[in-house]
Amino acid sequence: MKALEIIAEQQGGTPPSRENAGPDVASAQSPAVPAETPAADDRYSRQRLFPGIGDAGQQRLRASHVALVGCGATGAASSGLLARAGVGTLIIIDRDFVEPSNLQRQMLFTEEDAREALPKAEAARRRLAAINAEVTVHAHIADLVPANIHTLLQGADLVLDATDNFETRYLLNDYAVETGTPWIYAAAIGSYAATMNIIPGPSEYQTACLACIFPEPPGGTVETCDTAGILNTAVNLAAALQSTEAIKLLTGQPQAMRRTLFSTDLWTGEHSEVNAGKPRASCAVCGRREFRHLRGEGRPHITMCGRNSVQIHEHNRPVDFAELADRLRPLGDVRWNSMMLRFAYNNYTLTVFADGRTVVQGTAEVPRARALYARFIGS
């Protein structure tokens, strides 16, 4: 079972915004939701015919407010599905911009978006407005961090995970438990896809949280989409499962939601499920309510290092240089010895030291450096 690897879905990231950017830094909103029309009735007619939704469920969807953290492969697919389903308000948060390598799996984006290097959040907002003008979309070009998470996610009934690193997922988990906001984890890498519903208490439908299943993230370097590859079918399966579970919750049917961590390999047909129906009594997060990720504890210390470099001081992260070199060699020039590894990619150079400390050369933007680190080293 590859649940630990799958959690580390990596969609890449090169953010054009500062780390603590709030909604005032780069926020856009689509037109206000117009009154429902006969044309709108026809738009959702097949969905209304489905017994699990009906007219009442469609109205609930229209009144719903969903935040998506990340708008790479999974986020693009899930936001498109929810916009077409008629979810009334979407918040899109992403620190990345569109690149040609995204187009194989990130369904909202076009070659023109890649040529213009549009921020993914804004490109998604434009595309979603063209798909369904009734949906209000707030686009935030930002890196979700403890300093801005409460502001950016304010008002969301549900949060969908489409991020690319452990750090943000554990931050989301802390936020969800602290505020009582449901969230749905989803990830894909290679031919694997995985999802898990997290419903915080107090509620008769309370589930385990992420920290109940994985008290700590895996150590060392991990596979990413950039190093292990990914099938667009795996992405779309993860998004379909995530969006369906979201629709169950938003239409007032939490009892119908799956209560397992589900993972499957589309290539081999293997799948597994881990029971996540009950919280772990000794869980530090939902049991003892210790929100160390919200407090920023354990996050890499980041400093400027020279004129055009950012240094990321990872905590207790041993590095296997030989294994990392093998993963990175197909992507760029790699040189290493017993003390350090240097990886050159396009206009950037990442120098990784034995203790996990990494210097990212070629940018002075902290979010961009963090995203490059997540893409190639794994976070």
Could you walk me through the main structural features you see in this protein, from its secondary elements to its overall organization?
Helix content is 32%, strand content 21%. It is α+β, with helices and mostly antiparallel strands and 379 residues long. The protein folds into 2 domains: 3-275, Rossmann fold; 301-376, TATA-Binding Protein, CATH 3.30.310. A 9-stranded mixed β-sheet has the order 1-4-3-2-5-6-7-8-9, sandwiched between helices. Strands 10-11-15-14-13-12 form a 6-stranded antiparallel β-sheet, with helices on one face. Strand 8 (260-265) and strand 9 form a beta hairpin. Helix 5 (73-85) packs across helix 12. The longest helix is centred in the middle third of the chain and has 19 residues, at 232-250. 49% of the residues are buried.
Itemize the secondary structure elements and their pairings.
Blueprint: H1 3-7, E1 27-29, H2 38-43, H3 45-49, H4 54-62, E2 65-69, H5 73-85, E3 89-94, H6 111-116, H7 120-131, E4 136-141, H8 149-152, E5 158-161, H9 166-179, E6 183-189, E7 192-198, H10 210-213, H11 225-228, H12 232-250, E8 260-265, E9 271-275, E10 301-304, E11 309-313, H13 321-328, E12 333-336, E13 340-345, E14 348-353, E15 358-361, H14 366-376
Parallel strand pairs: 2-3, 2-5, 3-4, 5-6
Antiparallel strand pairs: 1-4, 6-7, 7-8, 8-9, 10-11, 11-15, 12-13, 13-14, 14-15
Concise structural overview:
The protein is α+β, with helices and mostly antiparallel strands and about 375 residues long. Helices cover about 30% and strands about 20% of the residues.
